[in-house]
Amino acid sequence: MIKQFERSRIKALVSGLALAALVHAGAAVAQVSIKFHHDLPEDSAQHLAAEKFKAAVEERSGGAIKVQLFPNNALGDDVEVTQQMQFGAVEAAIIPTAKLSNFVPAMQIVDLPFLFPSPAIAHKVLDGAAGDQLLATVERVGLKGATFWESGFKQFTCDRPVKGPEDFKGRKVRVMQSPIIMEQFRAMGANPVPIAFGETYNALQQRVVDCQENPLVSITKMKFYEVQSDVVISNHAYLAYAFLFSKRWFDAQKPEHQQLLMSAAREMTAFQREETARREAGYVETIRKSGTRVSTLDDAQLASFRTATASVHDKFGKSIGTDLMAAFKQAIEAAR
Fold this sequence. Notes:
- The protein is of the alpha/beta class and 336 residues long.
- Helices cover 49% and strands 20% of the residues.
- Strands 1, 2, 3, 4, 5, 6, 7, 8 and 9 form a 9-stranded mixed sheet that branches.
- α2 packs antiparallel against α10 (255-289), α4 packs across α12 and α5 runs antiparallel to α12.
- The longest helix is centred in the last third of the chain and has 35 residues, at 255-289.
- It is globular, with a radius of gyration of 24 Å.
- 41% of the residues are buried.
- Residues 1-29 have low confidence and may be disordered.
């Protein structure tokens, strides 16, 4: 009887431990973890908006979803992270549209020179039906598009003054790995050189390249102005970030979590853009105080750049897609 009782106790104890282990495992599975990548420092508007996204998601999910932020390319560069997202190894990221062009050629439409006349028009188009049509194109390569964040309009920087497209003739210009951006500079007679974002400062400092383009936030935060004599306010192209989830991972989530994630990403879009715009005047002041020249192209100079780069729109119309090009141009005209 005693032995039988002991065996019963042991069996009950083992069963209890097994049940506890199952409960613990279930709790671990119930908590969803998101690794969120971006390529800028922690004091950028992108990171601040990412922190607000994290806070909203964790609060609204009651702690069921945890978001880990990885700024400054901590998980790899944008292309590497995009590849990781395709396999579900990274769950969320904001990726410059130009970096997605080799995955989805349609995405490069946003990088066409002089496409958007103003930030307000860019926002209206990207937040509307044309923007949704563009976001849908990433699903075929294993990504899920939510919205568009931004770094704003791009400006030129160079080691000499720039007043017209002829000033780029024969110059080596650092560019993102994007066919459309490379062609933009070729159209002006320049030699585009694809260099990783994190290596750009050294490339400018060591005169591997003479010039580059980026929004003011990148020029300032990455201190490109320290190794360039001139910053030229040109607003010649727009740098958008596509807010993406891994489709493989996203499709495996509960419908209520999917809705929560999409709505949180979209809600933070206005804040991220407003914060970017708010900071730009301060960036210009920082650059001026350093001793680097800051100039602004006038209407006649801008017109010459538009003429020099107009062929880029025609050349990439087919790879982008004629329907998408028409939808964007119609939306831009309506937004005017």
